Amino acid sequence: MPESCANLCKTSARVNDSSRVFGSTPLYEAGSPLTFAIISRRQIIWQSEKLKQTKRQSFSLWGDMGTIDRLLSVEEALIHVMVMVSAADSAMSDAELRQLGDIVGILPVFKDFDDNNLIKITQQCAERLSGENGMNTTLALVAESLPTKLHDTAYALGVEIAAADLRVSPEEVRMLQLLRDHLKLDKLTIAAIERGAQARFRTQ
């Protein structure tokens, strides 16, 4: 039993003893439904906190074979997004690759990023995607790694890559749907980002 629950039991016993001294009915009688309800509630809270701690620790470890099972940096997470969208239809076009390189070279969010690490991060993303349940695991890692204020930025970059070759495949559409679900973006933000991309990539 967690220490907090054990302490609760001791407290309940002390309350019972005090109640008996003053001749009143014990509030936390041993084995009463109220006692079990309170202890069960404390156990649920404790287990939930331990789960969160375990999840955070699992992202803080270095894995084997060069794959990093830790929280990603902002730059790494955004690059993972672009690689996932580009590779969604199993064909990373030259236009998508050029757009990815341009984004990394221009956007302020990448101002401190070393371009020499781009290929390595792309390979790490591919390793994660090739694992069991790789897509959902990688999407969850990206969402966990990015601060909320950059969730719309991540989706915007995904849309930019999907639109780079002037066509969006069904597979890329599905990937964007999964991405915005993991990032928990609202409909107005999604519509604004997609409308902006349509305007930028519209041909004559």
UniProtKB/TrEMBL annotation:
<feature type="domain" description="Co-chaperone DjlA N-terminal">
    <location>
        <begin position="76"/>
        <end position="192"/>
    </location>
</feature>
<dbReference type="InterPro" id="IPR007791">
    <property type="entry name" value="DjlA_N"/>
</dbReference>
<protein>
    <recommendedName>
        <fullName>Co-chaperone DjlA N-terminal domain-containing protein</fullName>
    </recommendedName>
</protein>
<dbReference type="InterPro" id="IPR029024">
    <property type="entry name" value="TerB-like"/>
</dbReference>
<dbReference type="Pfam" id="PF05099">
    <property type="entry name" value="TerB"/>
</dbReference>
